[in-house]
Design a protein that fits this description.
Keywords: Oxidoreductase. The chain is of the alpha/beta class and 247 residues long. It has a single domain, classed as Rossmann fold (3-Layer(aba) Sandwich). Strands 3-2-1-4-5-6-7 form a 7-stranded parallel beta sheet, sandwiched between helices. The protein is globular. The structure holds nicotinamide-adenine-dinucleotide.
């Protein structure tokens, strides 16, 4: 058990990558507070998850909700050691067609929401004085431009850069801050692509490993970043992309 005695907060945990991370952490002995704004899906997922898990319905863009997330970790489990800022959204549109409302929506959740969650969790870790690990969800699109992913790519590039600033600020407190950069992972966010055989074929042709990734393959990297195995790693973005960025 690599996370025994640890408490983790995972946002966007009702499905996809967040759920896989929450389950992996719980299986490794962590207490896990699973957060999502989708109440029905969260209840279903938490009920089907083994271990010391709690559900909290909340929105990462709302400061009071984020305060409640941290407070639940403290009241239920006595503190917070690991925070995975995973909640994220996507809106595909070409540059010339992108609506400001869609740009705002993506930046609000992926950048402002991730910042807010990370900052409130980091403040709790500083108060506790026992170090910790913050894990941000970036994406291969932080490195790889796609003409219809301007908003999403900008948000994930911002997360990658925020990760470095946070790592510098938190190093003196013994808190490590890293990002995970998934490639094409088989979740709801990918459904518009994976449900269309032509689009899927195109995507797969650009992935050296010739398949989509599974959420549990991203969870394995999150476990590395959460555990003592990465005790000298901070400020990094680790890509789990089947070799896509090596092309
Ligand atoms: P998903 O859509 O399956 O899950 C995202 C979850 O976040 C959903 O349950 C949703 O309800 C929740 N959420 C969205 N906005 C929220 C908010 N404001 N407050 C609380 N919860 C909110 O997506 P996923 O593929 O599991 O993505 C997880 C993370 O990984 C995201 O940050 C995404 O950008 C990133 N990512 C995914 C891929 C991929 O291919 N799937 C690739 C790169 C990066």
């Amino acid at each position: 058990m690599r996370l025994e005695t640890k408490t983790a907060l995972v946002t966007g945990a009702a499905g996809g990558i967040g759920l896989a991370i929450a389950r992996r952490f719980a299986a490794e002995g962590a207490n896990v507070v699973m957060v999502d704004r989708n109440a029905d899906r969260l209840t279903e997922s938490v009920n089907a998850t083994q271990g010391e898990v709690r559900a909290l319905v909340g929105d990462v863009t709302v400061p009071d909700d984020v305060d409640r997330m941290v407070a639940l970790c403290e009241s239920e489990f006595g503190g917070l050691d690991i925070c995975v800022c995973n909640a994220g959204v996507i809106r595909a549109a070409e540059f010339l067609d992108l609506e400001l409302a869609d740009l705002d929506f993506v930046l609000n959740v992926n950048v402002r929401g991730a910042f807010l969650t990370a900052q409130r969790a980091a403040r709790a870790m500083v108060r506790q004085g026992q170090g910790g690990s913050l894990i941000m969800l970036s994406s291969m699109t932080a490195e790889l431009a796609m003409s219809n992913q301007l908003a999403y790519g900008a948000s994930k590039g911002a997360v990658r850069q925020m990760t470095k600033s946070m790592a510098l600020a938190m190093a003196p407190h013994g808190v490590r801050v890293n990002a995970l950069g998934p490639g094409s992972i088989d979740t709801d966010i990918m459904a518009t692509i994976s449900n269309n055989p032509d689009n899927l074929r195109k995507v797969l042709s650009r992935i050296p490993m010739t398949r989509l990734g599974r959420p549990d393959e991203v969870a394995g990297v999150a476990l590395f970043l959460a555990s003592e195995d990465s005790s000298y790693v901070t400020g990094q973005t680790i890509y789990a992309d089947g070799g896509r960025l090596a092309l």
